[in-house]
Amino acid sequence: MFRTVFFISDGTAITGETLGHSLLAQFSGVEFTQVRIPFVGDATAALEAVAQINRAGKRDRARPIVINTIVDKKLSAIIRSSESVVLDLFGEFLDTLENALGIKPQPAVGQTHGLKDFSVYEDRMKATNYALNHDDGIKLSFDRADLVLVGVSRSGKTPTCLYMALHYGVKAANYPLTEDDLDEMRLPPFLRRHKRKIIGLMIEPDRLAQIRETRKPGSRYASIKQCRKEVELAESLLRLEGIPVFQTTRSSIEEISSRVLAELGLQREMF
Amino acid sequence: MFRTVFFISDGTAITGETLGHSLLAQFSGVEFTQVRIPFVGDATAALEAVAQINRAGKRDRARPIVINTIVDKKLSAIIRSSESVVLDLFGEFLDTLENALGIKPQPAVGQTHGLKDFSVYEDRMKATNYALNHDDGIKLSFDRADLVLVGVSRSGKTPTCLYMALHYGVKAANYPLTEDDLDEMRLPPFLRRHKRKIIGLMIEPDRLAQIRETRKPGSRYASIKQCRKEVELAESLLRLEGIPVFQTTRSSIEEISSRVLAELGLQREMF
């Protein structure tokens, strides 16, 4: 079973695509072709989108699903004139909110992922630069860090730090546990004094070996023996130091980030 | 006017927060306190959330707004028993989709931002590593790049590349135009042969000077004169080479990414 799904927006279409993925994930057995149509800002663009939707419907012999986040009512009406099933994310919920708040919404076109405020944006950029400069033990000073992720090499620290910096403006540093740290069975002093903002990332040895193998095939570094040893020692070390640990093997970057922020009580607004 | 908004989910709550931000942006004049409650997986957690909602309502003397993306109907019913206005993102739309598709949804709890597939996940990680290794001219070989962003230093290339890698699994490299490139008024040969996958990022000189000033205060690099000169030359160069250019001054990373992918026809599914 094939269906085409359109994400249509006056902005980036990210909001619609995010919710769309959640909804579509509930229907297994359907093969969805996903098409993003962002920046639909006028009637011409809306009519072009309608033509594209109708062509897909003819090809699939089934009505496409349209996830619409256009704010403008006239443009949304054009989209609804297509031969499709339209889920209008704003229509319904805006009315409910208007009633709850007792004030009228001010149409703010495509603002969700727009640039709202230079200072907020700068926090985000600064956090990203911070993460890049404090990645993989490049800089070992963590005074200004909001948090420090520690773990063995390739346990998922770097992408998680970058994600948290980009989306929460959090200054996230990371430090790879070295063989020296593991042998001495304690955190180095420059880390130890930041204990309350450290979180450990842990990964299953099999998966770790698999990831390392794609980077350095056939190396001692990628051998299952070495991976088992490092993971075991890292687990002991973090337990001894009383550092909370999250497993990354079956988690996405988003899940790990969300759990880390919750654990440390960092209630940052998401970008 | 104060209102507390809760984003409640059995997963990361990212979907609800994303749509929530879009909706709340339409109501100016209200000061929203935002609280994320992720990973609500059982009745105990749901009841705790209800208690937290009710406390906020008492404090604010106004019913909190709850954006709920819990899939489980029993847990959602517990959330709805709170003294609040609940927007249930799944309830409504799942019914519409069920009718449109003619099949029953299979409850897939908190899967949107979960780890679905190791190979997809690996693409995302590989793309992130690629972006890190091909950032800021570190590696000058772009054969495997899906796209290359060029522009003057601090025009927004790095965060945009990281964002595209993390969210679209796109191998995004970037190259900072050097003074030599600008003097010679042409792209270096190793870039030239990848012309069709190059996009230019441009920024207003005033804004550029402001950003550079925070990095190297009082430097020639940050002077408005230098910034004006570089931007002017970069614009001429990219025009001469026929490279499409996007302005980053008033755009968010999400907007730039979305426009770049659309321009190059890269229809990647978003993570």
Task: Describe the protein's architecture and organization.
The structure is a homodimer of 271-residue chains. Chain A is of the alpha/beta class. Chain A folds into 2 domains: 100 residues, Rossmann fold; 147 residues, Rossmann fold. Chain A contains 11 helices and 8 strands. In chain A, the strands form 2 sheets. A 4-stranded parallel β-sheet of chain A has the order 2-1-3-4, with helices on both faces. Chain A has a 4-stranded parallel β-sheet with strand order 6-5-7-8, with helices on both faces. In chain A, helix 6 links the parallel strand 5 and strand 6.
Which terms summarize this structure?
Rossmann fold; 2 domains; 271 residues; alpha/beta; homodimer; elongated
Helix coverage percent of chain A: 40-55%
Question: In CATH's first tier, which class of the largest domain in chain A applies?
Answer: Alpha Beta
How many beta strands in the DSSP annotation of chain A?
Answer: 8
Unreliable stretches of chain A (pLDDT < 50, length at least 5) are none
For the record, give the distance between the C-alpha atoms at the N and C termini of chain A, rounded to a whole number.
36 Å
User: Into how many domains do the coordinates of chain A divide?
Assistant: 2
- Give the largest interface pair and sizes: A-B, 78 and 78 residues
Which term fits the overall shape of chain A? elongated
Share in β-strands of chain A: 5-15%
